[in-house]
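[09:14] KT: can someone run the structure on this one? pasting the chain below
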Amino acid sequence: MMETIGPAVCGSKSRTALALTCFAIGAVGVAAAVGLALGLIGSPALLPLAIGVAIAGALREAGFVRLPLPQLRRQVPERWHHELPLPIWAAGYGAGLGAGLLTFQPVATFIVVAVAAAASGPTAAALALAAFGVGRALAAALPGRFIERMAGLLVGMRRANALTLALVALVLVVAPAGAAPLDLGAGSQLDPAVGDDGALAFSQRNDDGTTAVVIHPRSGAPIVIAGASEPSLRDEYLAVRDAAGIVVTRWATGEIVGRLDGAWSKPALAWPFIVGVLDRGSRRRLVVVDLRTRKGRQIDVVNQGDDLGRPSIDRHYVVWHQATRTASRIRLADIRTFRTSTIRRSRRVLVSNPSLRRGTVVWVEQSLGVSRLMQRRFSGGRIRARRLVRSPRLYWTTAIGPGGVYVTTWNTALGRAQIERIR
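[09:31] RB: done, structure tokens below
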């Protein structure tokens, strides 16, 4: 088929260039569409399968095993360039080859990439398969003499391909899995909180109001607390916001062990300390309270028109966000010394909703319809983006637990929120 796209068949160099352009459009477009479809129907749960397929492909290319490949062992129809206009048959040839499995497959590379794409999400999958389409287009554009010379190096190329697929398997092993939405029932779930034993607490919003829910991986039915929200979970203790303020219980039994009455919200718990936001007069204060002594101390304060975000506490450290009219900040405080510092500050993007666990802090950055989940060591080091979503989806509240990073994802078009786990 490659010999078809040349002056001998097309009639002139200009028609050959048109045929190559149409071929490239068909190959890249269909390959990207296949990748997008794989990403949409796939899941991060397919990552172990992708690793296994990459290893099997590497062994096949190295000659250690003989494995059949799914394919249609035929060429694209030759009659097309006799019966159809040049742009149509050229694009059709590109589409047939870009689809991957509709023609002969001599190597396992496409299968490995396709399965890995299904485990990677729609965007990554579309880009990966689009690159395959670009490769098909380049092969059609290369001189025939070059293709024949490369065919003479088949053994060496198969070995190089085996090494490449082995590297793909290694990358898949060390790469973090994508986001996996948690199936937590109907309504909206937000404000995740995770215990060291894997227990998960969250707010549940539906037509009947808001409840706080606790699910333990080794227990049966979830514990539901009506009229409560904004849970914070640590060991056996649970803090929630209710109509009277903040209440702290032993979540397994419901025994009340502490309460802060008044205009309190956004609790963060690490027994015996609880951090919350207290609205009083024209000021909004972030306060830490020792529940044993009932003594509190202010950590931060802003005007009522500004925002103090949901805090997170781990051992003696607290992180929270402060958003004013001029800038937003991720702040860190040591409640032993009450020294504070700024982890991140921006005038251009909204930085918000941090969580802290064992020296790692995550937070959300929002700008121009893009929400990014960011991460760094709070003691310093490089800031890196873990994942991003685009409008109408946005990231909101976060938590860190033994199972990974948990984040609320709002779909503003649907008016619904889900909690996703990112390993």
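[09:33] KT: thanks! The mean pLDDT is 85.
[09:34] RB: yep, looked fine to me
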